[in-house]
Amino acid sequence: MDADAILAALFTEQGRTDPYPFYTALHELGRISSVTPAAASYVAVVNGYDQVDQVLRDPAFLKQPGRADWEEHPVLAVLQRSMMFSNPPEHAHRRKVFQQVFTPRRVAELEPKIHQIVGKLLDRMAELGDGGAPVDFISEFAYPLPTQVVGELLGIPLDDLGWFRERVERIDAYLDLAGKTPEILAAADAAATELSEYYAGLIAQRRADPLDDLVSALVQAMDAGDEPLTDPELVSNLVVLFNASFVTTINLLGNGLPPLLARPDLVEALPGDAALASACVEEVLRYDSSVQFLARAASVDTVVGELPIVAGSNVLLLLGAANRDPRRYPDPDAFDPSRPDIKPVSFGAGAHYCLGAALSRAEGRIAFQGLFERFPSLSLATEPVRSEQFLLRGYSEIPVVLNAS
């Protein structure tokens, strides 16, 4: 198959379920391939590790411009005003204020709370799985853990968190390439409106009565005049931060469970070995990335690999393929946390490197250690069920049997 055919196959049900054979086919063609713009909105697909990393770090490559009517759609307005979807100079000032308060120290201070949440969720799983009853790992652990952690970070009451899921899922559905229908856009618009109203209320509360949470710290930094961030920009960034902070971690936990269960030696060693747990998290990120692709637009004429890219052209960056580039990782289809120098591009690179990467890694490390300490004989009850999205790759269900000691 040529690159056009491979790219077309990727965005089918077969490709969504298992994109890795198609990535292998792309690697056989090279590290970057031109594609027909009429068949896709891109002039090239980038699959080599070094080339994906190059584009992510190159300031000449920008986020794709939003639709001309973005101000007419609440979800597009939220995305456009967020640091994740903006370009310089807006991106820098939006990100800077978050970097001032979302620090490594704040992440480290959250770790005792993460341990506490993990313990309570494992207790709940033990109740549900008593007597050998199957328990859905996604709904009972992988979803509530990052949701409660980001709720703790932002200061969102626990009782409010259940309200978020359906609204967040509507926005994520729009972000997927298959989600650009009028119906999905309308549902995402409604969700963005409701979430924006919620965060506007939360900002007002924290301005009047600050607490020890991220929203209070952001409001204080804004009101001190340190950075020209507006309330609408803060609202948009909180909407996107919540989505990004927990969806990728859900998929990190879900994507990591099956390959770990296939390695009983790792399951046995994980509880007492924090370094191994961290290595397993990195290998999960490499082996089955939560985010499979990104797109960038060239702002000037440039070259990626040996392929010229004309200014104004879009390129598709396959993060999942880069993480399995055989030139970077020998035997890339093997799950091997002992492999040296694991540096996946799953959280991006350069100016848009994921702000919550350290928090997601901490959650994964603590979760996998706690899970297998509590349930060392945990096993799959039935075949896991993949979600319908390709951009955010994960499972919708992973039924497990605990067999707790």
Structure description:
The chain has 405 residues and is α+β, with helices and mostly antiparallel strands. The protein has one domain: Cytochrome p450 (Orthogonal Bundle), CATH 1.10.630. It contains 17 helices and 12 strands. The strands form 4 sheets. The protein has a 5-stranded mixed sheet with strand order 1-2-8-5-3, sandwiched between helices. Strands 4-12-9 form a 3-stranded antiparallel sheet. Strands 6-7 form a two-stranded antiparallel sheet. Helix 1 runs antiparallel to helix 3, helix 5 packs across helix 13 and helix 11 packs across helix 12. The chain is globular. The N and C termini lie far apart (50 Å). The model has no long low-confidence stretch (mean pLDDT 93).
